[in-house]
Structure formats: structure tokens, C-alpha cells
Specification:
alpha/beta, nine-stranded mixed β-sheet, 15 strands, about 40% helix, about 25% strand, binds adenosine-5'-diphosphate, binds magnesium ion, ATP hydrolysis activity
Amino acid sequence: MNQFNSVYITIRDEIFDALDASSLIEISASDLETQLRDSVNILIDKRQFQVSNLQRVDLVKALLDELKGLGPLQTLIDNDNISDIMINGPQNIFIELNGKIDKSPVQFVNEKQLNTIAKRIAANVGRRVDETKPICDARLADGSRVNIVIPPLALDGTSISIRKFKKHKIKLENLVEFGAMSVEMAKLLSIAAHCKCNILISGGTGSGKTTLLNAMSGFAGNTDRIVTIEDAAELQLQQPHVVRLETRQASIEGTGEITARDLVINSLRMRPDRIIVGECRGGEAFEMLQAMNTGHDGSMSTLHANTPRDAIARVESMVMMATSSLPLEAIRRTIVSAVDLIVQVKRLHDGSRKVIFISEVMGLEGDNVVLEDIFKFVNDGTTEDGKIEGKFKTPGLSTRSVVYERAKFFGLENTVREIFQ
Ligand SMILES: Nc1ncnc2c1ncn2[C@@H]1O[C@H](COP(=O)(O)OP(=O)(O)O)[C@@H](O)[C@H]1O
Ligand SMILES: [Mg+2]
């Protein structure tokens, strides 16, 4: 342990012992800072520690962060250039800074401090993490997503994974700049979202589903009443008429759980125009399809699947799990009449993220769901430095296109036609 840390632990223990915890709630950050500065100076002089003025400032900040904020984590959270923070025990913190992962010099003084902060993060959103419930999903005040696993499940000390909330949200035009899709695809997706197509975004973990959902939801009308349902709120809709709902995990006694399915059912009584489900994982798929089929056009969601056809199969199995009575054929018919468009995203092996299919759900032919690709990414190979090359191709719009029919209703059929000229 370095000298700064050992001084810090001594001072911190003395100050914390003397502190009246209840007074902390009322005191302002600047008053607390003044008090802490005085106490730090007195203690350092009393014990004759060799501490520079600059280090005294750092000590006060560290105490302040620990009392009011998230301790050593606070500096990393305040740094907007850091996108991910991964904590493997008190001494091993890794960060993703500008796309590169490195070990951070920041450390916790010990496991107890790290564990206390993990508990505080959970408590801030009304959740608990302890020996009986050692895994927890939470969210920081700024919207960042957090996953916590504590010992004994985490072998080397408390593990915290943070996906930082992006203050600058990625728009469709940015995705075009990044090479994730063509200008034409961005135009088509914006029209589809605006003209109330029901859209599923399919892809693997970290493939960019939520990012795309967020970008597309920006094209919903300002007068639409939108209800969003998420496990940990990530969407950042700019429209004025938005109700944001979040699921709740079961309490320690195993009660009080509110699932995405509960929220979708409830949202139908909230007079929504559109329902946006952050991620479909289970039974909520059934209610969402019902919603799409009963006048809540323009609903969107994401799900885990590798191709548009796979996405249909995933929805089928989610609905089957939710309703034991519905025959497969009926489920298929419900899916086909509910879903208009499937957008497939993928993280390619060179690390780039791309929209690899935009497919329309045309209908049923016998048992078979008919999909038609409007756009697809065709891989031309890999360059010497490992970059994937390819083109976005379109066979043109089907004469029976659902998006075209919707666009016509909104008076935008010429705009759609122009995309394919
Ligand atoms: N097209 C893209 N190009 C570069 N980065 C992207 C792209 N799409 C998403 N990202 C980034 O990738 C990460 C994962 O994206 P996210 O949308 O959360 O994935 P998912 O919801 O599929 O798990 C985020 O940090 C996001 O900013
Ligand atoms: Mg996501």
C-alpha cells in the first residue's frame, strides 16, 4: 500500500468515527468540504504526516467522494471519455477510454470500502446486494448501467461492471458516418419509424441494438404518447409526451417483482400511441404483439437473435412460453400481422457494428413466414489490416412493401420511391 493510501486510511477512520452520520444528510457539499478540510489539516499536523498541500486537497476530495459520492469510482464516473468501468476487486479497475481498455491507477483502499460503495449504488435505486442476494442490476444517477456481483460468488472481491451513459446520443446520421449503414438505409429507417411501422431490432449482446432503437425512436411524432419499458432505463427520447417505466426485481423475501410483462399489460391502460420495450426476453413478447395488433402501431423492441428469420423463431418461442394454449400456427399469424420490419445488427469480427439486414415481414405462405430483404450487407472480404469490406445492397422495394403502404398513408410515398432510384 502506498504512503498516500495509508495516510488516507488512518485519517478516514478517525474522521468517520467522529462523524455523526445523520448530520450528513442535511449538510451541503460545500460546508462538508470546509469541515473536512479543517479536520484533515488538524489530523495531519497532530500526527506529523508528511503530506503536501496538493495531497491534502486530494485527501479532502477522496473523503468527500466517499461520504457523498461513490468513493474512488467518482473520478472515473465524472470523466466523460470513459465508456466502461470494470472493477475486479479493490485493486483491479479496468476502463475503456476512447475505445481502448486499460488498467486504471485508481484503487479502492480495501474490499470493505468497495463493498460499501456497491451496496450504496444498489440502495440508491431501491435494491439490495448482500450475501443472500449477491447479484444485482442497478443504475447510477446519471443513467449508467451497473451490474454487481459480490463474494462469495465473485472470488476476488466485489465485481462491478459499469456501462457509462452516453451524454451525446448516437443519431442515425452518426451511424451512417461510422459505416454502420448507408444513407439510403438511414432514410428508410427514419421513414419506417415515423410512419408507425412496428419494428423489431435483432442482434447479439453489444451489437448496437439499444443504440439503434434510441436513434430510430427519435422519429416518432411529438404528439405521440410513448410508453417505454426497460429493465434499466437507457433510452433517451427527446419527445415531450413520454412515460418511462422500469421493471423491479424481487425483494429479499422474493416478493414485489414487477416484470416487463406486467408493465406492458399495464401500459395498455395508459392510452399509449406507441409502446417501446427496451428488450424482449420473455412473456412480454406476447402482450407486445397484441399491442401492435390492436392499434398501437409504431411500437418497437429489441431481441437477441442472429438473423431476421431467427428473430421470428425467438418471438415464437417467447410467446409459446407465455401462453400454453395458443397453437403455433396462430402464434405465427399474430407475429406476421404485428411485425412489419426486422432490422438485424451485428458486431463483426473486426469490431465494427453494422446493420446487416433490413427485412420486411410480408406474410405467411403455408407454414412459412415470408421475409423480404430491403437491404443487406454483402461482405467482400477482409483487408490486410483486418478490416471487413463490403457493400450495402438493395434489390429494390417489393411491390407489396409494407413500409411503402404505410408511407403512402402519411403522404411520403415519393420520398420512399426516391430512396430506390
Ligand atoms: N454503429 C456503431 N458504431 C460504433 N459504436 C457503436 C455502434 N452502435 C453501438 N455502438 C456502441 O456499442 C456499445 C453497445 O451498444 P448497445 O446499443 O448498448 O448494444 P446492445 O443493446 O445490442 O447490447 C455502446 O457503447 C454503443 O455506443
Ligand atoms: Mg441493449
